[in-house]
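Something for you to look into today, if you have time. Just paste the record in under my message, thanks.
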Amino acid sequence: FMTVTDLNALLRLQLEHFGFLPLWELLDAAITSAADGFEVSTAAGHQFKWRDGAVHCYFESFDWWARHGGGTEVEAADGQLQTAYADWTREYRRYTVTLQAHGVALKQHLPGLEDSELTDSFLLEESTLPPGKFPAPVTEHSTDDLGTIAVTVVNGDRQLNLYPLRASGLNDLHRFIHAQGLSGDVAYPGRINYKQDLRQLAAEPLPAPG
C-alpha cells in the first residue's frame, strides 16, 4: 500500500513533469498545514499565497491586466493581447480548478484589495470605454479551448464586463444579465474583442441598420 507521503511524492513527480511544480507546492502546503507566508509565482506571472489555511490568488480583468497588470508590456496589435490574456486565463483556471478539486480552500481577490474577497461566482466590472455606434447588446469573448472568458453587455451608454470566476459563474452571470433586462442579440466573435489603442474589452460591432 502507498502512504500519504508516497502519494504526495508521486503527485509532485507528475506535476513537475508537466511544468506545474508551484501547483504541487501549494497542494503540499495544504496537505501538511504549512506555516503562513508561503508564496509561489507561476510562468504566466500569477502569485498564489498560502495564508490562514487557504490559498489566496488575484484575478485581473482584461482591462486591468492590459493597462496596469501583467500585460502592460504586451503589444496590442495582431491579437497579441488576446493570445497573452488567454494564456494568463488558462493558467489561472488550471490552478484554481485543481486546487478546488483537491479540497483546498481558495480565496480570490482583486489586485491591491487583499482584505476584500471575491465571493460571487462572477466579477462585474463597469468599463470606462463608451460603446461604439452599433454595438452588440451582448458579446461573448472566447477562445476555442477555454470557452467564454468574459461577457460584455451594453446598456445605453454604459458597458459592463462580466467574468466567470467559478464553475457556475457563466450560468450565474447569464441569469444576472436576463434578470437585469440587459439581454438581447448575442455576438460570438470567437475571440477576445478589444480596442487596440485603449487596450480595453469592446462590444462586437454590428452592421449599420440598412
About this structure: Residues 122-201 form one domain. The first helix runs from residue 4 to 17. The mean pLDDT is 87. DSSP finds five helices and eleven strands in the chain.
